[in-house]
Amino acid sequence: MIEVLAKLSRGPVFLAGEMLECVITFTNPLSASSTSASSEMLAWASAQIHCQFHTSENRVALPPSDGSKHDVQAENETVFVPNRGERGQCILSTPPKILFCDLRLDPGESKSYSYCETLPVDGPPSFRGQSVKYVYKLTIGCQRVNSPIKLLRVPFRVLVLHGLKDYQFPQDEAVAPSNPFLEEEEGLKKDSRLADLATELLMVATSRRSLHLYNISNTRGKVGTFCIFKTVYKIGEDVIGTFNFSEGDIPCLQFSVSLQTEESIQEEFQRRRGQPVSFTMHARHQESCLHTAQSSFSLPIPLSSTPGFTTNIVSLKWRLHFEFVTSGESAGTCLVRGSQSEAVTWTGVEQMEVDTFSWDLPIKVLPTNPILASYVSQFSSTNSITI
Length: 387
Hints:
By secondary structure, the protein is mostly beta strands. The chain has helices at residues 186-207, 370-374, and strands spanning 3-8, 13-15, 19-27, 40-55, 89-93, 97-105, 110-118, 127-128, 132-143, 149-159, 212-218, 221-228, 232-234, 238-244, 252-265, 278-288, 294-300, 309-310, 314-327, 335-337, 346-348, 354-366, 382-386. It contains two helices and 23 strands.
């Protein structure tokens, strides 16, 4: 028996273009029955990253796959196929890397190997939607002599920030600040610079503030105004907005604001022409606001959510969805006098005519620092298997 333990060094969330590093440890556990003849042998081990894509058959119509590209060897259990037994299609993969050949482990002995690979920048982000899913995994294959291959899969999350792909790092870094007491490999230097560049780009894009004022009105007149200071956010930020109903002609009884994503399939891949898009609500604020001059809301963008993106098959967009309930009568008739005595009590009316209308405001949601997103990730940095 051999225990295989895979640990992602920095956590389970990465930016496309970053270096993924995983330490894989093979251990022959020492038991009470172990003897000098209890050594274990592995023929080889290999690792590879792949992105698995699968769709809802009721929503997405994919073109038929090319049967001429079918790999007969994939059905052989002695051939390393990272996505064997998984649903959907493998749309992206890195070249496999051999970790070792002919490994012998004595009882209580362990060996560790480091796997490093740059995540492709032209792939989609990790996404689990109602119509499609993009799932990234690092698969480690191990085989004993004359035995089937055993697979250890390590799922992780990939965030995509547009603009990093075209950035060219300067060749001459003689004047760049560095730590003379640390010896860094060139790949790790570039990986660190990539993360710093992404953080800077995100900070610039989401720190710009300008006043956006919108008049809220229906067919009968003005209800109020809505104010928001920016429309570009990172996941993990709060969307904050304010209402001013004091200048409205129509009383607003109640409003609600929902933070939603809109998942739409490109027209050529829709199962039915003109099929509706899918909406997912991530946060909601509802408030009764009769005789309220001003109000506000704060909606958090979950760190576990997917920033907006577009591929050749699916598009994900973010929006604020507003719903307003207004009175069909004037503000004065919303209260009635409950007593004719000297002590006057005002109470709400039992029935009144209302109008409802909705409004959508598109916003843009970008990724955040992957280390921050790792704190709430559903994936574990450590995975293991016994073979």
